[in-house]
Specification:
It is a single chain. The chain is built from three helices and two strands. By secondary structure, it is mainly alpha-helical. Strands 1-2 form a two-stranded antiparallel ribbon. Helix 2 packs antiparallel against helix 3.
Amino acid sequence: MTDWVRRALTRRSESKGPRKIQVEPEPNPKLVLLVKFSIYMTGALVALEVAHLAFLGSWNSEVFAGISGLIGTVTGVLIGRHI
């Protein structure tokens, strides 16, 4: 499994019984795609904010709100998936 998003979303647990077997169910492909899209959009919004700062010399609070929302969404999905 070379996909780091898929690895991050995979739950790792041990089964109860005489044999200790690690069970790793695959995450939903739609969830993996959503997390990848959110991460790429966060990068695009960061680039937009940097360009706004470089060319206009002012902070754009709407773009920063979008960045904050996407970071919160991705963090919530990654933390919630492992609980």
